[in-house]
Amino acid sequence: HPFEVDAQLSTLWFLPIAWLLAPNKQSAFALIFAYYLFTGREGGEIIHRFGEMHIFQAYGIIAICSAAVALLWALAWQAKPRWRIVGLVGILVATSLPPLGGFIYGSPLLSAGWIFPGTGLVGIVLLAMSWISVFAFIESKKHQAQIAKYIATTSLLLCAGTSLVLNSQYETPINKSVHAVTTQFARFPKPLEAQYERHEQLIKTAKDALKQPYPILLMPEEVGGLWQ
What is the pLDDT of residues 105-115, one digit of tens each? Predict the structure, then answer.
């Protein structure tokens, strides 16, 4: 995460490829466990601060959650390549839709927004097709299956070409009906009286915004002060 670039989420494309190429369930578990443990590295601190829990207990929760998700991915991994593809589709659906999808973050499907921008469900289908194509190509080389190799290559080239065309023509949509509100107030003060005055300023800003014809108001976290 070096450059604050949203497009780096496209690197999630490699996670299912690595999972498909795992030699066994243990390796598949280790891969996903390491991924969720790393992406949840700030979660322990958040639980510690907001839940008033000991820091080691908080990171223990992150480790347990990461292990639980990794176990689901390990159960979906199958020894036979054909069933492994079925397992990939199944685990992606299970961890993206409710109820599990409401708790599990960091789905590899997030990469569809950058690899196939503006295509919605079609982009997700193309993303899955690209994973299956790469895996099928590698397996076809192992087993000398020329027909499967040509089909996988054609499919992968189709996905890559579609991605290039979509990205070259994509323009970020602009919602002209959004009323922007500036909340760049001074730093949250320590004196109680100054806190009250700052809250009054914030409330007035919110009330003025709600008078606009589009009564949807978003504010950044902790704009109302430090969590207490």
Answer: 889 999 999 99
What is the token pair recorded at 203?
A: 């409330």
By C-alpha distance, which of 30, 32, 62 is closest to 45?
62
E strands in the chain: none
Please give the Cα distance from 21 to 14 (Å, whole number): 11
Residue type, 79: A
For the chain, the farthest-separated pair of C-alpha atoms sits apart, in whole angstroms, at: 77
How far, in Å, CA of 126 to CA of 62, rounded? 32
- Among candidates 202, 201, 228, 200, which has minimal Cα distance to 217? 202
| Cβ-based burial of 20 (10 A; exposed 0-12, middle 13-18, buried ≥19) | buried
Q: Give the type of residue at 140.
A: S
In Å, how far from its chain's centre is CA 116? 15
Rg (CA), the chain: 23
- State the Cα angle at 17 between 140 and 142, rounded to 5°: 20
**199 pLDDT above the threshold of 90:** no
The DSSP letter of residue 109 is: G
